[in-house]
Amino acid sequence: xxxxxxxxxxxxxxxxxxxxxxxxxxxxxxxxxxxxxxxxxxxxxxxxxxxxxxxxxxxxxxxxxxxxxxxxxxxxxxxxxxxxxxxxxxxxxxxxxxxxxxxxxxxxxxxxxxxxxxxxxxxxxxxxxxxxxxxxxxxxxxxxxxxxxxxxxxxxxxxxxxxxxxxxxxxxxxxxxxxxxxxxxxxxxxxxxxxxxxxxxxxxxxxxxxxxxxxxxxxxxxxxxxxxxxxxxxxxxxxxxxxxxxxxxxxxxxxxxxxxxxxxxxxxxxxxxxxxxxxxxxxxxxxxxxxxxxxxxxxxxxxxxxxx
Length: 308
Prior knowledge:
Number of helices: 13
Order of helices and strands: HHHHEHHEEHEHEEEHEHEHHH
Distance between the termini: 28 Å
Structural class: alpha/beta
Mean pLDDT: 92
Shape: globular
Low-confidence stretches: 1-5
Helix content: 40-55%
């Protein structure tokens, strides 16, 4: 396998496609991948747990487009599959990892939440990567690299986040703090767990704060691209409050929300919003279906990682 396929799978990411087609294919790829994961769990082919990003796909697609993935660092969380796939396109390696195969991104030992591939890192510990994102940004600042860390609204109660914000501002670390606010932390609605304004959370630290309330990949990209450029040119951190939706359960089947409420959220489905913008959505969707089937078939036949 050549170097680019070991690192960034340009074909899967649709590097040669126009941006609109590329965005839609990535949106569909993430959705189909995670739908397949839930199907595997239902059929007892996966152990443990998994947290899907269904409804939040546009965040990953747009923000990865705005970053320079040859040098920038991405720090993700327990809901990391969309970020990972839009970062590197390594769907086969991700399937293999979650299935516990030796060929996985981390040799089958990291599972669904704890991934590493090039400059991509994810952890299930809420806010646990905040300090690491700041430290890495400082270490790579002279190379023009920035750190992008994804957190949820449920992370607003973690002290490590505020310590990281303090040092990012004091030391001028080029970090993009992204809060993917889907309105609920597992089963706790945001209004019962988060006081004050998420949008202005970092303002007291002297950090520029931004707000995007959209699940439209184009809108998010147009909003985030200038923020990334400003971080890179100024060497200063920025805070982005991104209001999004969680269309699926917290983890597999644990969704306590009212069905009427969830049905209302479906109107903000990023795939539905985007589908009419591409010339041949059926072809892009079929490509994703065929690709998912192909890589999963290979991953299922791979050797299981040693448990010890």
